[in-house]
Amino acid sequence: MTLKTATLVAPPSASVLGHADSIQHPAPRVLIANRGEIARRIIRTCKQHGIDTIAVYTQPDALAPHVREATTAVCLGRNPRAYTDGAKLLQAIREYHATAVHPGYGFLSENEEFCAAVEASGVVWLGPTAKHVARGIAEAAGVPVLPGSGLVADEEAAVAAADEIGYPVLLKATGGGGGRGIYICADATEVRSQFGVSQKQGEAFFGNAGVFVEKYIRRCHHIEVQIFGDGAGNVVHLGERECSIQRRHQKVLEETPSPLLDDDTREELTAAAVRLGSAARYRSAGTVEFIFDEDARRFYFLEVNTRLQVEHGITELVHGGVDLVEWMLRLQLPGLEPLDVTEITTERSGHAIEVRINGENPAQGFQPCPGILGEVSFPEEMDGVRVDTWVETGTEVSPHYDSMLAKLMVYAPTREAAVAKMQAAVAATRLAGVPNNLEFLGELVKDKRFIKGDTTTSFLEGFTFAPHVMEVVLPGLQTSVQDYPGRTGLWRVGVPPSGPMDSLSHRLANALVGNDEDAATLEFGLTGPTLRFHCDALVALAGARFDADLDGTPVEGWWRSFPVRAGQELRIGAVSADGGVRGYLAVAGGVDVPRYLGSRATFPSGQFGGYQGRYLRPGDSLPIGRLAAKAHAISLPEGWRTKYAGAIHAPSKPGSGVTTVAVLPGPHANPDYFTDAAVDVLYSTPYEVHYNSNRLGVRLNGPRPTWTRTDGGEGGSHPSNVHDHTYAIGTVNFTGDMPVILTVDGPSLGGFVCPATIPSSELWKVGQLRPHDSIAFKAITIGDAYAAALRTDALVAAVKAVARGKVAAAEAAASLDALVIDVPEMPPTRAVLVEKAASADHPGYLIRLAGDRYIQIEYGPMELDLTLRARIHALEKQLASMAPAGLVETNAGVRSCMIEYEQRVMTLPELLEAVQNADEAIGDVKGMVLPSRVVHLPMAFDERWTHEALEKYARSARAEAPYLPSNIDYIAANNGLEGREDVRRIVFEASYLVLGLGDVYLGAPCAARTGLVTTKMNPARTFTHEGTVGIGGSYMCIYPMDSPGGYQLVGRTLPIWNAFGRTKAFTPEKPWLLEFFDQASPHRAALSSRAMAAAQVRFFQVSESELESLRERFAAGQYDITIDHKTFSLKDYDTMVADPDMVEAVAAWKAQQRVAMEVQLRLEEESLARLEEAKAAAPANPSAHDGNMFGDGADESAWNEPGMTKVAAGFTANVWDIKVKAGDKVAKGDTLVVLEAMKMESPVLAPVGGRVKAIVAEQGSMAAAGQTLLVIEDVAKA
Question: Where does the Biotin carboxylation domain start and stop, copy by copy (predicted)?
Answer without folding.
Answer: 26-465
